[in-house]
Amino acid sequence: MKLLKNLGWFLLTVLSFYFIYGLVQSMALSALGLGASIFGVLPLYVVLSGAYVYGVYRWYQTEKVSIQTTAFNRHIWLPTLVLLVAITAQFFLPEDPSVSQQIVSQLTVEQPAFGFFMVVVFAPLTEELIFRGMLARYLFPKQDNSKQTLLFLLVSSVLFALGHFPGDVQQFFVYFSLGFSLGLAYISRKGLVYSISLHALNNLVSFLMILML
Description:
Strand order of the largest sheet: 1-2
Low-confidence stretches: none
Distance between the termini: 52 Å
Oligomer: single chain
Number of strands: 2
Mean pLDDT: 93
Shape: globular
Structural class: mainly alpha
Radius of gyration: 17 Å
Largest sheet: 2 strands, parallel
């Protein structure tokens, strides 16, 4: 019964991500598409998105997550290594951008200031809060052994991949590998700072590559 209740609460946080934050994001993009000034839209987007992030973070803090040290989180460098391997592997795969990647690329070129805040700042904050923080808080609050931690890593990676709406198996595994490295970062420091930072760094590199190419 408790598991079903916690599952319901977690699904509520996912819905808040897509409907509340998604609404803020879509309204800002629509305003820009209609010719509104970036100087008016961007501050409002930052304030509303920041308020959402703050609210979800306070919600996340209401219960502590217990993560025991296992082979998965013993080495602080492991998440970064996994991320680098995943990024390197993408260069050997056929170019196959997902729908979300195409949207991000177009937005970055057309509205770089807005794109920076959406991709480099708020995407890492919101996605790590939901797919790592709130998932752990409600469904994996006590990771007492490596099996529980591995299950958390797999579930969070699958949800993270599906949350980016991959169009095929290759796109799914690209997002899955990224999600796995970020999950390792979360359990490595037993908190969100490392995973958010690593996620932001990954997105910053992608953001700069789009601008330079």
